[in-house]
Amino acid sequence: MTETTEQGRKILVVSAHPEPRSLNASLTAFAVDHLRAAGHEVRVSDLYAMKWKATLDADDFPDHTPERRLHVMDVSEEATLAGHLSPDVAAEQERVRWSDAVIMQFPLWWFSAPAILKGWIDRVFTSGFAYGPAVPPPYGESAPLAGRRALLSVTYGARADSFSPDGVHGDLAHILHPLQHGLFRFTGMAPLEPFTVSGANALAAERFTEARTAYARRLDALFTSAPVPLDAPIRS
Fold first, then answer.
1. pTM for the whole thing?
2. Among 36, 66, 196, 226, which is least packed, fewest CB within 10 Å?
């Protein structure tokens, strides 16, 4: 993996942890500072600080009337194309459009992303924006969000070998597949090998220093490292 840094790119960091003194918050702050120091423009969506509404419902579509069945794909596409989404969703879509890369920072909870991050995905990646018959087909260079890089930065409390093909929890690549393939690759974004920090519940100071050093290398290669091949194993 090369450590060459391309300067002057636009990066959206989506952070999902309720505690501002958490490891995840520290990694978010580190990434923002490191990327800005490298000459990039960075915007942050701190979902808990924003009090992000995690549930997709009819309120996301102000023109929707109760008399009409809420068929989410159809209604979201109509609202997206008409520019009539709720302001918070429209603002996040604009951030994604603006970006050259998206970084998602979150803890692994119950073998998945926190509900607030899943809700951000559900609400922001609407039909007509990230997929659907009114936009280019999914996957590849013509997909709706093609040309963007995507990096998962994930913490978890277990040992690293617990999330391996022979580990008690199984291969981390399988657990992150819904995001790497079902979200990023489907919409045209290029998924990179995730950055992970194991043993996160009691991370010693020296291990945090090591994690920041390793994360800095990954951030420096955000626009130069090769995307993860389909179904490739993930290294911790």
1. 0.91
2. 66
